[in-house]
C-alpha cells in the first residue's frame, strides 16, 4: 500500500508571513504617525474614495464644456449655416432674374428658390429644426409712361397720352434665428436687390440703359411659407421682343414705377445715365413712387414686357391695331391689292389669335375685302400678331376714285377694341396731261414775290422778291416765306446758276441755264414745291436739283443736256406723272427719291445715260411709264423700303442691270422688263421681301440672269421669262 504525501496548500504572501514579522511590519508603518502622547494610532485607507471623486470631477468638466459649446459655438456654427444659405438663395434669385429676362424674350422657364435653411445634426449638441422662408407676390401697383410719341404706325396709340400698367413685386423673406439682420430678396421687374432693415445691397436696374428704356411688369399669385425648395414657372405673358422708337411731345417723357428700393440707391444707380434729366421720389404707404424724366428732343427705344410668376400662360388682350402694309395704294381697275394689319397689346407686343374683321366687307365703291386665308371677312392673327386681307377693286371706273375700308379687332368678348382705315386710289387708264399754270397765283402782280400767308395771292404782308444774284447768276430767295414765280415773269434764262428758294416754291415759268458749269436749283426747304408742267433745262451745265418736303412735277420736262445729274428729292410724296426726265451725258445719274413718302410716276418718260434710281419709302407707282438706261455698266433701280411697286404696263429697258426691290407686293401686269447687254451686272432681279410678285402677261428678259424672289407667291400667268439658261424663281408658291 503506497504512502501518500499530504496535499500542498497555497497561501497568499501575507499568509506566509509569521506573526512576529507582521507585527514588526505594522509597527514600522505606524511610526510615521504618532499622537501627542507619544503613542501610535492606525490611519484608514482612502484610495477608493479619491477615484470616485476624480470621476465625478471629470464628468462635471465634460458637462461644462458641452454647455459652453452649446451656448457659444453652436449659435456661431448655425449663424454660418444661415449665411451660407443666404449666399445660396441669392444665387437662386440671380437665376430667377435670368428666367425673367428669358421670359421677356418669349421663352418660358422654371425657377427654384430654396426657401428654408437646414441646420446640421451634431452629436451631443442641440440644433433647431429646419427653418422656413416666405415667398410672396405683392399687391398690384401702377406704373406709367407719359408724353411718349412713337414714330411709324404705332403713333396712333403712342400719341403722347399717359399709359398705365399694373405690376407686382416678388419677395422672398427667410426666417433666420441667428443672423443679426434678416434680409428680404426683392424683384421689382426692372430692379432687383437684397433689402436689410436700413440698407440694400446688390441692387441692379434695367429700366434705363442709354437710350433704351425697358419696363418689365410682374404678375402672380404666390403667398406661401415653406421649409422646402419651391419651384415655379416663369411665363411670358407679353414678350417684348421689339423696341418702338419714341420721342417727346415737347414736354419730356416721364416714367413712373412703384418701388420699395430707397431713393438714394435709385439715384446712385441712375447717376451715370446721360439721358436721365431728373429724378423725383414720393413716399407711399405700401409702395413708394420713382419718377424719371428723360432728356427732351431725343429718340428712345422703348420695350415693355409682362411676365407671369407661377401663373398659366394667358392670352394677352388686344389694345390697338396698326396697318403694316397697303395703305394709300394706287390700284388699277380689277386688280387685287393686299393689306396687312398687326394687333398689339398694351405693352406694344403682338397678340396672336386675336379676331380681326373687314368692316364692311363690301366697300362703297363696290370693292370687296376679305381675309386671304379664310376667304371671309373675318380671321385670326398669326403668331406674329398679323393678318392679311385682300381688296378686289371693281373693274368699272369713271376717272379717279378713292375708296376706303376698315379692319377692326375684337377682344375675347367680341367687343370692338380698335380699327385701322385703309385708303386706296382707283385710277382708270393714264392721267390726263396737266395744264401749265395749274397752280398759278390767283392774283399775278407781274413780279416774283413772297407769299407770306401761303394763299397763292399777292396780298396782305406779301412782298416783292428781287434777283440778288451776282454776275450771270440769278437768285430769288424768299427766306422763310413761300416763293412764287408767276406766269407774267416769263422764262428765266441765265448763263450762270439759277437758284429759286423759299419755304416752299410755286414755279410757273420755265428755267434754263446755258453756262458750262451752271447749276439749276429749286429748293423748297421744309415746304412744298409745285412746278407743274414747267421746263427745267441745263443746256451744257451741271446739276438740276429739285428739293422740298413734297414735290409736284407732274407734266414737267427736265432735261440735263451735258455733264450734270438730275436730282429730285423730298421727305414726303413726289408726283412726276406724265413728266419727261432726261440725262443725256454718259454716266450722269437720274435720282428720284422720297425718304418718307410715295413716288407716283404714272406715264412718265425717264431716260438716262447713267444710273437711274426711283425710290419711294411708302411705294412707287410706274404704271404705263417708260424707264430706260443706255449705258451697259450702269443700272436701273426701283425701290420701296416699306411699300409696294406698281409696274403694270411699264416698259423698263436697260443696257446694264435692272433691280426692283420692294417690301410689299410688286405688280407687273403687261410689263416689259429687259436687260439687253451681256455685261457682268446685266441681270434682272425682282424681289418682294414680304409680299408677292404678281401680274398677267409680263415679258421679262435678260442677256444674263433673271432672279425673281417673293416671300409669299410668284403669280405670272401667260408670262415670257427668258435669260441665258433658266430663270431662278424663289417663293413658297410659284405659278408661271
UniProtKB/TrEMBL annotation:
Database matches in SUPFAM superfamilies: Invasin/intimin cell-adhesion fragments
Domain of life: Archaea
Stored InterPro entries: Ig-like_fold (IPR013783), Invasin/intimin_cell_adhesion (IPR008964)
Membrane spanning stretches: 51-77
Biased composition regions of type Basic and acidic residues, renumbered to the chain: 32-46
Keywords, comma-separated and alphabetical: Membrane, Transmembrane, Transmembrane helix
Disordered: annotated segments: 26-46
Protein name per Swiss-Prot or TrEMBL: Big-1 domain-containing protein
Amino acid at each position: 500500500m503506497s504512502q501518500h504525501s499530504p496535499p500542498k496548500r497555497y497561501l497568499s504572501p501575507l499568509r506566509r508571513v509569521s506573526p512576529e514579522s507582521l507585527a514588526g511590519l505594522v509597527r514600522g508603518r505606524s511610526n510615521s504617525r504618532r499622537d501627542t502622547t507619544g503613542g501610535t494610532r492606525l490611519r484608514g485607507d482612502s484610495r477608493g474614495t479619491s477615484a470616485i471623486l476624480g470621476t465625478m470631477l471629470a464628468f462635471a468638466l465634460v458637462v461644462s464644456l458641452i454647455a459652453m459649446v452649446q451656448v457659444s459655438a453652436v449659435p456661431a456654427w448655425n449663424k454660418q449655416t444661415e449665411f451660407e444659405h443666404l449666399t445660396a438663395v441669392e444665387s437662386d434669385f440671380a437665376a430667377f432674374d435670368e428666367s425673367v429676362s428669358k421670359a421677356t424674350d418669349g421663352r418660358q422657364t422654371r425657377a427654384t428658390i430654396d426657401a428654408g435653411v437646414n441646420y446640421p445634426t451634431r452629436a451631443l449638441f442641440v440644433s433647431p429644426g429646419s427653418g422656413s422662408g416666405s415667398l410672396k407676390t405683392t399687391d398690384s401697383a401702377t406704373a406709367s409712361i407719359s408724353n411718349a410719341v412713337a414714330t411709324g404706325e404705332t403713333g396712333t396709340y403712342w400719341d403722347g397720352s399717359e399709359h398705365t400698367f399694373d405690376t407686382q413685386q416678388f419677395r422672398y423673406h427667410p426666417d433666420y434665428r441667428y443672423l443679426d439682420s434678416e434680409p428680404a430678396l426683392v424683384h421689382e421687374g426692372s430692379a432687383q436687390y437684397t433689402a436689410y432693415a436700413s440698407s440694400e445691397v446688390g441692387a441692379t436696374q434695367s429700366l434705363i440703359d442709354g437710350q433704351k428704356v425697358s419696363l418689365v411688369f410682374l404678375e402672380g399669385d404666390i403667398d406661401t411659407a415653406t421649409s422646402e425648395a419651391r419651384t415655379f414657372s416663369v411665363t411670358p405673358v407679353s414678350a417684348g421682343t421689339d423696341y418702338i422708337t419714341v420721342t417727346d411731345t415737347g414736354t419730356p417723357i416721364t416714367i413712373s414705377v412703384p418701388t420699395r428700393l430707397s431713393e438714394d440707391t435709385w439715384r446712385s444707380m441712375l447717376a451715370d445715365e446721360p439721358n436721365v434729366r431728373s429724378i423725383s421720389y414720393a413716399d407711399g404707404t405700401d409702395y413708394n413712387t420713382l419718377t424719371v424724366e428723360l432728356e427732351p428732343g431725343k429718340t428712345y427705344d422703348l420695350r415693355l414686357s409682362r411676365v407671369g410668376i407661377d401663373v398659366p400662360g394667358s392670352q394677352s388682350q388686344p389694345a390697338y391695331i396698326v396697318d403694316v402694309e397697303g395703305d394709300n395704294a394706287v390700284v388699277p381697275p380689277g386688280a387685287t391689292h393686299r393689306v396687312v394689319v398687326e394687333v398689339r397689346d398694351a405693352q406694344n407686343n403682338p397678340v396672336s389669335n386675336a379676331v380681326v374683321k373687314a368692316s364692311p366687307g363690301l366697300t362703297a365703291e363696290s370693292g370687296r375685302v376679305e381675309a386671304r386665308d379664310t376667304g371671309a371677312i373675318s380671321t385670326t392673327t398669326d403668331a406674329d400678331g398679323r393678318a392679311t386681307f385682300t381688296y378686289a377693286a371693281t373693274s368699272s371706273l369713271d376717272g379717279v376714285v378713292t375708296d376706303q375700308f376698315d379692319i377692326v379687332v375684337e377682344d375675347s368678348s367680341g367687343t370692338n377694341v380698335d380699327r385701322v382705315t385703309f385708303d386706296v386710289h382707283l385710277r382708270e387708264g393714264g392721267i390726263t396731261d396737266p395744264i401749265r399754270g395749274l397752280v398759278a397765283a390767283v392774283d399775278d402782280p407781274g413780279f416774283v414775290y413772297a407769299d407770306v400767308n401761303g394763299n397763292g395771292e399777292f396780298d396782305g404782308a406779301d412782298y416783292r422778291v428781287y434777283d440778288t444774284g451776282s454776275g450771270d447768276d440769278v437768285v430769288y430767295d424768299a427766306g422763310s416765306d413761300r416763293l412764287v414765280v408767276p406766269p407774267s415773269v416769263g422764262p428765266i434764262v441765265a448763263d450762270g446758276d439759277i437758284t429759286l428758294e423759299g419755304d416752299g416754291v410755286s414755279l410757273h415759268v420755265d428755267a434754263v441755264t446755258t453756262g458750262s458749269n451752271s447749276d439749276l436749283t429749286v429748293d423748297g426747304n421744309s415746304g412744298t414745291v409745285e412746278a407743274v408742267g414747267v421746263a427745267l433745262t441745263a443746256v451744257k451745265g451741271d446739276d438740276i436739283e429739285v428739293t422740298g418736303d413734297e414735290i409736284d412735277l407732274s407734266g414737267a420736262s427736265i432735261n440735263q443736256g451735258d455733264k450734270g445729274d438730275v436730282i429730285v428729292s423730298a421727305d414726303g410724296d413726289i408726283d412726276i406723272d406724265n413728266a419727261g426726265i432726261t440725262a443725256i451725258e454718259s454716266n450722269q445719274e437720274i435720282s428720284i427719291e422720297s425718304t418718307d413718302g410715295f413716288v407716283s410716276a404714272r406715264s412718265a418718260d425717264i431716260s438716262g445715260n447713267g444710273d437711274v434710281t426711283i425710290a419711294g419709302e411708302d411705294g412707287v407707282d410706274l404704271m404705263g411709264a417708260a424707264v430706260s438706261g443706255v449705258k451697259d455698266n450702269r443700272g436701273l433701280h426701283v425701290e420701296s423700303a416699306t411699300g409696294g411697286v406698281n409696274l403694270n404696263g411699264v416698259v423698263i429697258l436697260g443696257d446694264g442691270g435692272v433691280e426692283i426691290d420692294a417690301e410689299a407686293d410688286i405688280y407687273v401686269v403687261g410689263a416689259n422688263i429687259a436687260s439687253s447687254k451681256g455685261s457682268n451686272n446685266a441681270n434682272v432681279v425682282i424681289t418682294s421681301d414680304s409680299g408677292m410678285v404678281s401680274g398677267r402677261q409680263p415679258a421679262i428678259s435678260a442677256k444674263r440672269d433673271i432672279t425673281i424672289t417673293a416671300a409669299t407667291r410668284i403669280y405670272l400667268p401667260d408670262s415670257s421669262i427668258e435669260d441665258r439658261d433658266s430663270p431662278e424663281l424663289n417663293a413658297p408658291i410659284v405659278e408661271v
